[in-house]
Amino acid sequence: MISAVMPTYGRIDIAFDRGEGAYLFTADGTRYLDFTSGIGVVSLGHAHPKLAAVVAAQAAKLWHTSNMFHIPGQERLAERLVANTFADTVFFTNSGAEAVECGIKTVRAHFDAVGDPGRYRIICANQAFHGRTLATISAGGQDKLLKGFEPAVDGFDHVGFGNLNETRAAITDQTAAILIEPIQGEGGIRPAAEDYLHGLREIADEYGLLLFFDEVQCGMGRTGKLFAHEWAGVAPDVMAVAKGIGSGFPVGCCLATEHAAKGMVAGTHGSTYGGNPLAMAVGNAVLDVILENGFLEHVVAMGARLMSGLEAIVAAHPAVLAEARGRGLMVGLACTDDPKPLIAKLRENRLLTVAGGGNVVRLLPPLISGETEIDAALEIIDDSCTQLGKLGEGT
What is the pTM (predicted TM-score) of this model? Predict the structure, then answer.
């Protein structure tokens, strides 16, 4: 008999009762160090006092009106995002997949508006992840996500991540845009080289394409810049954002230049919930914290501490670990074999992590994590690798 909750998740048999900062607690008080952040979402940690106060105040005032009316909080957050990014305009959504979908529509609407509707195809990277809708699993192109949902939505061509030659070769008269994650998340924490990002910008400019970045996972301070592409000094034309912008509250957005958004006029796109007063109160509060002096510098410092410790652990446990990679507090541990035993052992030792592609364990701690949390995680990882190594010696 099917469960009341549709059985689409392979859930871990743990339920959490409350959270505090970088920690989660079960009903019996068992404490776990949370280096999943709800898969890169809880950027400011659990039960952040500023967010809790903002949600309570706004919930007592006004939750929702729909986009039939002006929403002051939405206009304020949009203006602040525009002021701090490449973008000129913002559309608010409830999720990352919706933000990517809006970006896809923005690309197509742009070329329709400039009189070239035959240009609609988007070049994407292998091993990408852009969401779970029919269009976004097609953009991702991974067989494991497409299985059972074929045929794939037309309009996406795939090339090697980091391969500029393949990108150039894939361009046709129908090509409209290039879509990539500056750091592939679900694909195994694979950062794009800065030369690659510069090359994509040059190709897009040469062929009159739009450059579209998916920063749903790597954005909103995760790497120590507000957005990951800033490290390379390369600006896109369109960008999808979500996860950390709401720190657990469902908020996403699609940012674009005025040129790219040429076709996005009244009636072309919409969302009933997107950008409602409650979501915008949270989004503005999150941005308040991330833009505070020293916040992003803290992420850089803690990321360096985490990476330094992980590199030492990799060197000490070559039978278990092959590599540590990433940027800021978006880090992947590549295992020599299936990462599931390590993830299970870490969880047994009260550290929560999440799998990624390519035998990778993803470490995505809250951005407010300090030396105490970083060092505690490193100790658990080291101990867990030692325990796994001893198990391996006994087989």
Answer: 0.97
